[in-house]
User: Fold this.
Amino acid sequence: MNARPVKISAVGTHVPERVVTNDDLSRTLDTSDEWISSRSGIRERRIAAEGEAASDLGAVAASRALEAAAVRPADLDLIIVASLSPDMLFPSTASFISGKIGADGTPAFDLSAACTGFIYALATGASFVASGQAEKVLVIGAEVVSKMIDWTDRGTAVLFGDGAGAVLLEPAESEDEAIVGFDLGNDPAGVELLNLPAGGSRNPASPETLATGQHFIKMNGSEVFKFATRVIVKSGREVLARHGRRIEDVDLFIPHQANIRIIDAAARKLGVPPERVFSNLERYGNTSCASIPLCLDEAAAAGRIAGGELVLMVGFGAGLTWGSCLARMGELKRIQE
Assistant:
């Protein structure tokens, strides 16, 4: 069976109402707006309310994507959710979201690849459509990373934010509006560099794990920085070369929004001029699996994606994982605000 072209036809996003600025954090941490912004590029982030879970944000983003595409939840063939902050270990956050949006009976599952999860989920969903197993696949990145942060740890507390983004995948009429290809990878040698130590079967929850903060994200920032700047370039070049494209062909570069220094360094090494790089890191921080769909939505709203653009999206995260998606964009439907 020949694979058929697949397009990203619609996008929907949602972020919590609460805004936490760097000045807010400086009241409880030994930090300042200048210290945080100069090292990360972040000035504020959205933080979920008490009791607000990943599925709550993801369901709103999903509904907005479906509304933009004029697609009923009952017409979906598959729902895939990427998240490193799921509602529960099981059942899946996708199950919660399917119930919230009224997609009863639709196959739904979670995919775990940390901050690269959205790209992995995009590749998985696109494969279902390309093979003819599905006509409409909803891919969602939904995060409430704030629930997994030690707010006394300056190394992580200043970096992360909450949010959700969803895209709809459908068959494309031509290659002129279709995903070109993917590059995915993983280096298990880096599993200790970025993780959540406790709560799984290797290190179950106990009074000791609770007392020692092992249920919070732990990160070796300098090593993750080195990995990210290297792998963004490697993966971006790989997907371009594999499909006979050059960096000069790329109209818009959307990297995972983790740190502005990582983004700037990777763009320079790739040879992407600043005007072709999209970032909203300043206002949202690192929203993990939600960062790339949030950028897609805002890029479309700003007229940066109007149809015909070649977009390079690159993610990286714990695992250590990485992934790139090269896509020729058609009209990206979204709810006008």
About this structure: Residues 36 and 42 are 7 Å apart (CA to CA). The chain has a mean pLDDT of 97. Residues 6-175 form a domain with the Peroxisomal Thiolase; Chain A, domain 1 fold (CATH 3.40.47.10).
